[in-house]
């Protein structure tokens, strides 16, 4: 697959390194993703050099190697691969490669050892070190010292007799020492790693092969290794701008992974369990450096685990069930005990971000908000907890959960079902919110097994009449005055919401509509790629063009709806 790294970063499984092409300047950047998406990631600008001056080049990028081809003499090139999780390997054919640091005041470069073949770079802002090692050829370093740091840092690798090679390695404290093999062997390691991942991805009809390859690469390349707050390998949402793991995005990635890689799938949940607050709340997001509880995400975690169990019986192990049950129990009690004023009111979202639908129209009149999607997710989670308690022979708890779910259901229908429709309430004034055109209000379909059949029929009819578009479900009714192109949650299609509705439709017998939505979404990826969200009418990918939960949802839907078909 030929890649445009202005949209899709060049990286690899387990690595915090990424290469991107800056959209504004056109410069090739080496980036480091430590510290999450609030930390600057660009650390070097990269340029191809011949006879001491920059030359124009073309990028030739596949999933596992990046080449800078001399535009006039393409037999001259520099090639890079991320051979190991913390190691970049490079080789030169007839040209030099120059790296210019994008540095802060205290960042500093110094010789390492006595033979001038290694230089250690201390990145104060990133709290890491890089070791630059010349393996063959020559190295030129321009890094004059000025009081507390280098005035500038420019490292140029030159070939000797036409060829050269080098390594760049990342670590936190002390260079561990490493014997480097030759470039072909190093490249073969990363190529083989990706090939093994690709082989585990679901098979699809030929029509969807471009989407399968793209989804496979994005999910593979967005994983980072355990470090700091990350207790296991984590699949970030993206290595463009949203390089954290969020606590509902992780559910869709875990579901996709569960069939072939149950340990990695479970790790996506376990990372949040490891940091679960004593109140029971899961963190909003986690990266190697930070655990943020400023917001949270909707309670879909027990449902996701239930889906994972269906895909892999290994996750039915009683030890795993007990651990998951305990965590989901505490997370559920957080919503019941800490997010409502008394038992006559429903739990609330304190911010749009708590819902995952950050700027949805139900949040435009203020917060906190009683929202029907939150209650529906909670009821389903509690019903699943009741079943889990029974499996674990906790009979009293199973009955208590059933009673709690019944009480919540009655409150949902009493407070948020008005004149034949679900509504949201502005909790401080106990009033129905005026804006009632968001798709989020139809999410109670996920508990269709509790709803009267005629109510489910009305929900589905509303989906078809007000939200269904050429490529799927708009997140704001397209006839609404608030509908907005590229409006984030005010219109664009999102993968996780699509999957939640398809699952709910299937579970409640609306199989024809579920299949139609699945096929629409698969077609959408052929137009808009694996973007964060999509224009419902043109199919254009919006915001971040390389998102993992979009990729995971495509792979899940392809497995369920496309195998053996013609697309």
Automatic annotation (TrEMBL):
The keyword Hydrolase applies. Pfam families: MGH1-like_GH (PF22422). Residues 244-550 form the Mannosylglycerate hydrolase MGH1-like glycoside hydrolase domain. GO terms for molecular function: hydrolase activity. SUPFAM superfamilies: Six-hairpin glycosidases (SSF48208). It comes from the Bacteria. Belongs to the glycosyl hydrolase 63 family. This is Glycoside hydrolase family 37. It comes from Paenibacillus aceti. The lineage of its organism: Bacteria, Bacillati, Bacillota, Bacilli, Bacillales.
